[in-house]
Known about the structure:
Layout (H helix, E strand, L loop, with lengths): L8 H27 L10 H4 L5
Amino acid sequence: xxxxxxxxxxxxxxxxxxxxxxxxxxxxxxxxxxxxxxxxxxxxxxxxxxxxxx
Length: 54
């Protein structure tokens, strides 16, 4: 017996695929920003946190 609130299988698959694609995109973006953030300003606050003497 099908649940009252469940949609058609194709719709469920499309929603799951969209969620997986968004999740993958966010993970790729996070890794890219972690590896090469692109920040070159020497006065940026991250350099106070990432100093070698800490």
